[in-house]
Amino acid sequence: MFFVLSEFMAKLQEQLERSLKDAFPGYKNTLPPIELEIPSEHQHGEFSSNIALKSSKLFKKPPMVLAGEFLPIIENALNDNGLKEQIASVSIKKPGFINFYLTPKVLYGILEQIFTENKKFGRLALGKHTKVQIEFVSANPTGPLSVAHARQAAVGDALANILNFIGFECAKEYYVNDGGIQIKKLGESIKCRAVEVFGGTAQIPEDGYQGGYVKDMAEIFLAENKITTLKELDAIEQHRFSEFGVRYLMEVIRKDLEDFNVHFDEWSYESRIATKANIEGVLDYLGEKGFLYEKDGALWFKSTDFGDDKDRVVEKSDGTYTYLTPDIAYHRNKYERKFEKVINIWGPDHHGYIPRLKAAVEALGRDRESLEVLIVQLATIYREGRPISMSTRRGEFISLREVMDEVGVDAARFFFLMRHINVHLDFDLELAKKETSENPVYYIQYAHARVHSVNDKAREAKIQMKKAGFQLLNTQEELELIKKLGSFSDILLLCYKELDPYALASYLQDVATAFHKFYDCHRILDPERYDLSAERLALTNAAGIVLANGLRLLGLSTPEKM
RNA sequence: GUCCCUGUAGCUCAGGUGGAUAGAGCAUUUGCCUUCUAAGCAAAGGGUCGCACGUUCGAAUCGUGCCAGGGACACCA
Questions:
Q1: From the CA of A419, how many Å to the C1' of B53?
Q2: What is the arrangement of strands in the sheet containing A341-346, beginning at the earlier edge strand?
């Protein structure tokens, strides 16, 4: 499924269908659709069709016999339509596959395209500039970012990069929940620690924050405000502790993400978006539409009208809002900003929350499919073979900062992307540290570095790469590598369909493997054989371009030396 | 109880829309640097694809039912 070849493949498919229908007019409407696929074994050709297997029943003939009858029809069709030049041969293999073998010439077109497009190779016009927003991390500013956030950050950032690359206009947003009860508790916790500085005793509230960072913050707060006595401290209004806490922690979070190579386009604040006026506005809107009702003194949203399994409270009997209510206002705001597609990345604990938010989106008059919620499973951190329970409040967690410091940004990011987002990740810190050199990211980056090393040698040897007119690359390792490079944008398409950058991480490992094999089997630079060297040097650089493009999309560095 | 995710080699995991002999890495064993980076390559061993039915030319993949592990099901956030 090569990008360059996908058109060719479609053409071939159409050709096959027409020729078979012409040959068997009686089966015009019953013939199964022609499907071409890429066989896993290269001996089976570049494309394979199962049409003889599929239509065996229809024709009441064994697949092998049927394939034998189809073969001359197909060959004639190829001749008539000038595809003969691209297809070297067609053959039948048990149990009835019809396999197509391409001439190398077709594959050389991939190399030419790579050099023409260079850093843009792999791009697609798929997105048609559709405005997409992807909101992720959005951790409450009540502590440093955890490993769960780290994984979400790596995934969200890579996914946004990919979407932008294939033609969407994708904005990355961090939503700061600076309004809720948790923020109040954070302020109270800071005050308690501040009281302790002066030798006083204070009980951190239930569900308060006990991590060591709270104590540090208390000391900074005292220093900033030049508070030297307990009396002065008591005079400080409670909300100032919260405000300080949010400001301080958001700076920490911002710095952590920057260092993790995750850059947001927008930092939006709950306190500015989900204002009382906006919340009342959205409730009025829902009320007018008849989606709200009162029961037991509370105000309920009829989310069951939109597929939720029970209705949800939006305004509690004490007059305050539930968590859902400001969130509806926030999502209304997203659509008001003209985003056509809205993607949220959440942890698995929010799984049950999806139906009610989708219901809200639909109640607001939007297509429920326009909201896409991705659940990224947690990463369990193992230290010395033991899982560490994660609790921000008790202050027991491994932070993003710690992981970055211990295993490095590239390794950490790649580790989080190495698995499908919907599967749980085991992250053994000791193992990750100890086996840093065996981390697949180094395997990929090493391939990239090798390309540059070969280029240095090529300059010394005064060998110039070719950029077109290839004809000497014909070994298995060379052709396999070219084919692999050619499937880059198909992988990006897969990432888009699954909204998961995992496939790209896996693909880059495959490219690196194909490159290392090629490198090992064949001497690239040989002054005695200049023409061959020029073509192999081109293949080397083509691999370098694809590796670099892929690494950049995943937010990884592209070292030229290792 | 209901819903979601997971179950494949000793370990960690790949195996889009059903295909041909089930694939990597780690670990074990063994080869390959007087020539472009050995952070690499090649080879060997290692499998009841959780279990059972079903769908069909053909199932790790799809369906149903079990079994096991994890998670979610608030007028919490």
A1: 33
A2: A266-269, A169-176, A131-135, A341-346, A371-375
Give the ranges where A166-237 is alpha helix by DSSP (H). Answer: 181-197, 212-224, 230-234
**Tens of pLDDT, residues A404-457:** 888 889 988 998 998 899 888 887 777 777 656 667 888 999 999 999 999 999
Whether A3 shows a pLDDT value over 50: the answer reads: no
Question: Domain boundary residue among A219, A252, A285?
Answer: A252
The pLDDT-based confidence of A556 (bands split at 50, 70, 90) is very high
Residue A532 resides in a domain: yes
- Which nucleotides of chain B are near protein (any atom < 7 Å from a CB)? 4-6, 12-17, 19-21, 23-27, 35-42, 56-57, 70-77
Same domain, yes or no: A547 and A443 = yes
Domain containing A505: what range?
108-124+439-553
Q: Beta-carbon neighbour count of residue A423 at 10 Å?
A: 9
Among candidate residues A236, A252, A268, the one where a domain is terminated:
A252
Residues 484-513 of A with CB under 7 A from strand B: 490, 494, 497, 502-503, 506, 509, 512-513
Q: What is the DSSP letter of A161?
A: H
Would the CA dihedral through A329, A333, A334, A338 be positive or negative? positive
CB A397 within 8 A of CB A390: yes
pLDDT: is A379 or A477 the higher one?
A: A477
Question: Domain with A86 in it: what CATH number?
Answer: 3.30.1360.70
Do residues A282 and A269 make contact, with C-beta atoms less than 8 angstroms apart?
no
**CB-based contact A185:A205 (threshold 8 Å):** yes
A191 contacts A215 by C-beta, under 8 angstroms: no
Is any atom of strand B within 7 angstroms of residue A531's beta carbon? no
- How high does pLDDT run on average in chain A? 90
In this prediction, residues A126-135 reach a mean pLDDT of: 94
The rounded Cα A80 to chain-centroid distance in angstroms is: 44
Q: What is this model's ipTM?
A: 0.93
Which helix (H) or strand (E) segment is A380 a member of? strand A379-383
C-alpha–C-alpha distance, residues A562 and A419, integer Å: 25
